[in-house]
Amino acid sequence: MQRLLTTASLLVALAVPAYAEGTRIGVITTLSGPAGYLGEQIRDGLTLGLEASGAAFELVVEDDGRDPNTGVQVADRMLNEEGIKLLTGIVFSNVSGAVVPEALDAGAIYVSPNAAPSPLAGEKCHPNYFVVSWQNDSLHEASGAAAKKLGYTTAVALAPNYQAGKDAIEGFKREFGGEVTEIYTGVEQSDFAGEMAQIRDKAPQVVFQFHPGGQGIAFLKQYQQAGLLGTVPMVLSEPSYDAVILKAVGPAAVGVTGTTHWNADFDNEASKAMVAAWAAAHPDVPLTTYGQQAYDTGLLIGSALVKAGGDGDVAALQAAIKAAEFASTRGSFAFGPNQHPVQDWYMTAIEADEAGNPKVVTKEKIREAVGDVYAANCKM
Amino acid sequence: MKRDNLVLLAVLILLALVPFAAEFTGQSSWTKLVGQALIYGMAAASLNFILGYGGMVSFGHAAFFGIGGYVVGILYHHFDAGTAFLGIIPGTDQMLVTLPAAVLVAGLAAALVGALSLRTGGVQFIMITLAFAQMFFFLFISLKTYGGEDGIMVRRTNALPGLNMKDKATLYWVVLAFAAAYYLFLRRLVRSSFGQIIAGIRQNERRMAAMGISTLRYKLYAFILSGMGAGLAGALMVNFLRFASPDMMHWTRSGELMVMVILGGVGTLAGPFIGAGALFTLETTLARYTEHWMLPVGILLLVVVLTSKGGLMALIAKLKGGAK
Amino acid sequence: MSPVLDIAGLVKTFGGLTATDHVSLTVDTGEIHALIGPNGAGKSTLINQICGEIIPNAGQIHLAGRDVTRLPPAGRVALGLGRTFQITSLLDDMTVRENLGLAIQAREGGNFRIFDRAAKRNEVWDEADSVLAGSALSARAGVKVADLAHGEKKQLELLMALSQRPRVLLLDEPMAGLGHVESQQMIEALNAARGECAMLLVEHDMEAVFALADRISVLVYGRIIAAGTAEEIRANPAVREAYLGEEDA
Amino acid sequence: MILLFEQLLNGLQYGVTLFLLAAGLTLIFGIMGVINLAHGALYMVGAFAASWVAIQTGSFWGGLVAGLVASGLIGLVVETAVIRRLYARDHLDQVLATFALILIFNQTTVLIFGRQPLFTTLPEIFSGSVEIIPGLPYPTYRLFVIAVGLAVALGLYFLINKTRIGMLVRAGATNRQMVRALGVNIQGLYTAVFALGALLAGLAGVMASPIVSVQVGMGDEIILATFVVVVIGGVGSVKGAFVAGIVLGLFDTMLRAFLPATLQQVMPGPEAQALGVGISSMGIYLMMALVLLVRPRGLFAARG
């Protein structure tokens, strides 16, 4: 019931713009369906980040339903009807693949808080297209590096049988260097008992798995239930152990190693401010890296809006975003030649807090200032 | 008959004016909205031919929509990269080539699915068509070369000689021309000798067999024609959105097409277009006001189906009857 | 003269039940051959095998000299087999004229044409109109089939079957459910059609059978127990015992 | 060998889950002639109610009861408010109406529970593993799920074959008119069957909740496999649902487990993996297509 009320008030808050004078920013994101919580994180992270930046803004949020058609429709209205010059928010690559070209052709700027499909990172890069999150490959390279650093030489790597899953395993293998058994899972699979049996049969030194969202929750639960948690160590990339997943699996995640570009215990001012602001605004909802990426996106956009004085001069705004002069929650942040981030990657451990629930603790920096493999193909 | 044609002409003129009206009122996204609705209307109308006129309830029609779309996407991909499909077929961005290719490939796929499915009927037919669509869905998700589940970008709309396809209004009119042509084709089709046989099969397959009609062949032919129509719609959609992805053939998309047909009016010519327009407008409009748009959409659909028979077309007929 | 329909040793079993047990019979050109028998004797199963809806386990069916035992229903129609159904089977959403027109169109061919106008095929509609004009349904051409009386439906079915110009027509209980007047009309119509094609008449109405049939075969428990002219059948003691006796009771 | 045995158990467990869902669906289908796309939503209702109560009370068993009660009650409400009006309609209207129900259920769940998946955990006594054969520790909870599934199958067998209600249900699945002619309160029978189906779907949801992610839309994913089971088994046949459920569960699990590795022996590595998984995903649909080609009405079609 309480949830019902908060949602209702949220709706009202959305309908009544809080900063009617500010620059209008279009947020197209996924709020319906099982992945709806990702869009929720992005929307709320953006709001807090922009507020922290001190820029005058107004968010125009709309659900894409994870459907490219809807996304394009929304984008068209925002760009051509409402005269919005700055878009952001998309969670999934399939939506951004349809929407980003639409925005770029209209002369607008798109800043991605999450999705970063590889074609747009390489040959099809564009001056008005920025990614604040990360490119898929570098994400999983970090896990490979972590597994290597921990001294493992044999691994079983599991991911769903779609492009991002294959990229994940490729990325892991690239940095790991050891012997890897690849297992692909079904795209909508939710029971991994068969895979657990195979892992036990292979008896590797380490397991790497990439299953975001609900699949990740099911996988971790079943890993524990199969008695593998204490037996075979696991390394994960950040989408497979975000705070929402950890909350849903509870103790079943304790003991797992993660790799990430940001963690809640980071010791910098921006991160601390964000964690505090989030806790105040959304006490019931854990802050995930999606929220953090969106917060950084908010800070970046905000800093550029302040510098360029709004979106009246798109070229100036583009230059201000490209300069990336903001204090990122991840400490250091810079754009590479393809306007994707060049950043550090960290190894984290999932430990138990006093109540036995999982808590992510940052251990060490494993990769420094890395961009992505597609940057070389980008000629801007 | 004359009056029908007048109404049709009037509707066409109104639709042709949409880009101007959109510009004039500042609601420029209408062009895209109506364009997408028209394309969905074509896909739904193609489904309606087998579903409404032929009595074959296919729950996998989005597969042909998606396949048609992917033909455009894949040909463009090879055109862009300067490579050839399977090393033989060169890519192209010419609409005069891509659309017929899409129609052809979708027709072939429909021939395959139809030949295997049409032996069954009722619920079994519903499920087996769904099953084939799922297979295509999983196939395209695992096609790495063509973007897998992320889909495939078509950076530029296919070229049509003499037209500036970058211009939104031009593209819209091209779509409208296709939609109108397809509508006229369907009108012709349901009134043709073949259309009559198909209508007969829907009402009484046994009787038609006793008249010497090998019903399976006719149903297969209808299924293929319908699949080709969906392929054409899919190819236009990819040109319109400049993007193809496996979403196009997800089973919920098949469900959506069915919803459009039923909402508009099963077995009517204009119904699917009206249903597509209504559903699409409803979704987009509601999504502007609430993130929870699915709830009102669901309730509305439920109310429509529980309180009316024959969808919006029946409602229109009722209103017209009342006005007389 | 060879028979237009020649059935030899037809066997069909369902599980343990033998529905037709080595049934043989012939229908000669121009003949009306009646098939009678109590309920459950296997008459419908036999009809459905002749039509091709059921494939027999053994035996042959020859139609106009061709072996059609494994031919699908539509193929048999093309060779000149027509039928009516026990429970009338028509296109309910269409009018009487449209039903008849479609039957004629089906015979005429060109059914894969997708760009013509079915309503403008004059040869089809002229024939339909002339057939209707000479029938008991002349005043009902524009009525939807769903709104017809039972007897009218039976009449329409016969017209549609005849419009196929079959060599042999299977009539599955054409009198079923008809009143006395309607039955007389039907008998008249069948008599009038006698010259057009041979008929295999499955019927319970003995009055009609004796009025129409040149020959009668009696089917009981899947077997033909007697065959002959009306007089022979009337006189046959086995038939009287197995069948007519029951009917009288 | 141990691996094979373990995979067989996994297949069996997936199979009974499918059976729990399919049993209700096939009866609703067979007796009332209603295609209920929203059956998966009741699975979701069971899982959410059970998880939520388990979180509040800390008791899995409390959650179990809550899940059953909630799904059964909501089944009753849905039958009375919507499904009842669909009996006389054609399949198309049913598909549209129950499609609408899915939208309504999913979004209402978001409104009540939010978008984030719920936390669930195993009941204390089933949190460990047992070594069934040496070298194979198997989670006791999964054995419990198998046992519950088999028990329900047994119970349904008795209900359908040994009771008066069961007789009516069987009659209804074969010949709807006949039951009406018997002068039975057919509406009451329909409602009872629907509620029972909802209850079983809810039970499947409760059983799955500690294993999978309890999230909005979880029912949409499994409903397709359930329909495949119903169609392969033959509409209206609980026996068919049981056989097809188990066979499909085993088949699906075996394909996933062994096909990629088998392909790898004849093809180069990663492609074989991807192809193997691709084929496995299509496996149940392929099987349905094959079964229907041979038996167009499924294995144990109740209606002739």
UniProtKB/TrEMBL annotation, chain A:
Residues 24-353 form the Leucine-binding protein domain. Pfam families: Peripla_BP_6. Residues 1-20 form the signal peptide. Keywords: Amino-acid transport, Signal, Transport. InterPro entries: BCAA_transport, Leu-bd, Peripla_BP_I. It comes from the Bacteria. One of its GO terms (biological process) is amino acid transport. Belongs to the leucine-binding protein family. This is ABC transporter substrate-binding protein. It comes from Tabrizicola oligotrophica.
TrEMBL record, chain B:
It is a multi-pass membrane protein. Its main location: membrane. Keywords: Cell membrane, Membrane, Transmembrane, Transmembrane helix. The chain crosses the membrane at residues 37-55, 62-79, 99-118, 125-143, 170-186, 220-245, 257-282, 294-317. The keyword Repeat does not apply. GO terms for molecular function: branched-chain amino acid transmembrane transporter activity. Pfam families: BPD_transp_2. The keyword Transmembrane helix applies. InterPro entries: ABC_transp_permease (IPR001851), LivM-like (IPR043428). One of its GO terms (cellular component) is plasma membrane. It comes from the Bacteria. It is found in: Cell membrane. CDD domains: TM_PBP1_LivM_like. This is Branched-chain amino acid ABC transporter permease.
From TrEMBL, chain C:
Transmembrane segments: none annotated. Residues 5-246 form the ABC transporter domain. This is ABC transporter ATP-binding protein. The lineage of its organism: Bacteria, Pseudomonadati, Pseudomonadota, Alphaproteobacteria, Rhodobacterales. Keywords: ATP-binding, Nucleotide-binding, Transport. PANTHER family: ABC TRANSPORTER ATP-BINDING PROTEIN, CONSERVED COMPONENT OF ABC TRANSPORTER FOR NATURAL AMINO ACIDS-RELATED. It comes from the Bacteria. GO terms for molecular function: ATP binding; ATP hydrolysis activity. It comes from Tabrizicola oligotrophica. InterPro entries: AAA+_ATPase, ABC_AA/LPS_Transport, ABC_transporter-like_ATP-bd, BCA_ABC_TP_C, P-loop_NTPase. GO terms for cellular component: plasma membrane.
UniProtKB/TrEMBL annotation, chain D:
The chain crosses the membrane at residues 12-30, 37-55, 61-83, 95-114, 141-160, 181-202, 222-251, 272-294. GO terms for biological process: amino acid transport. The keyword rRNA-binding does not apply. Its main location: membrane. Pfam families: BPD_transp_2 (PF02653). GO terms for molecular function: transmembrane transporter activity. It is found in: Cell membrane. CDD domains: TM_PBP1_LivH_like. The keyword Transmembrane helix applies. Keywords: Amino-acid transport, Cell membrane, Membrane, Transmembrane, Transmembrane helix, Transport. It is a multi-pass membrane protein. InterPro entries: ABC_transp_permease (IPR001851), BCAA_transport_permease (IPR052157). Belongs to the binding-protein-dependent transport system permease family. LivHM subfamily. This is Branched-chain amino acid ABC transporter permease. It comes from Tabrizicola oligotrophica. The lineage of its organism: Bacteria, Pseudomonadati, Pseudomonadota, Alphaproteobacteria, Rhodobacterales.
